[in-house]
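Dear colleagues,

As part of the handover before I leave the project, I'm documenting each prediction I ran so the next person doesn't have to rerun anything. This entry is a single chain, and its sequence is reproduced below.
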Amino acid sequence: MSASAIRSNRNLVYRCSYHVVFCPEYRRTVLVGGVEARLRELIPELVCEKRGEFDAFEILADRVRLLVGVGPQFGIHRLVKHVKGVSSRVLRREFPRLPSLWRNSYLVATTGGATLDVVKRYVEQQKRG
C-alpha cells in the first residue's frame, strides 16, 4: 500500500508520510556495488516487517533517501531504528570489510509541504542528478 493512502485501525484513521535521509558514518561512499544491491533488497522488506508503507527510495554512494509511511502509534523513529539496525547487521555480516555503517542521526520530514508525487519524483531522481 502507498504511503499516501489513508489507513485505519480500530481507533485511529491516519495518513503519515515521511521523507527520511540517513548516511553512513563520516559520509563514506560505501553504498555501491554489492552493498547497494543488497540494501535495495533489504529496505522494502524491513519497512514491511514493521507494517510500514513503502513508496520510494534511492540509494546514493553516501546516503539513503526513503519515502515511507507508518502509523503514529508505532512511530517513524522505531521504523528508522529497525531499518538502520537490521540493515547494518546484515550488511556487515555479508560484507566483513564494511566499516561501522550508519550515523546515529538522520533527517525525517513530513511530506505535508509538497504533494506526495512531487516528493516521490524528487527521491526517485536523486541519482540522475
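The two ends are 28 Å apart (CA to CA). Residues 76-94 form the longest helix (19 residues).

All the best with the project,
I.
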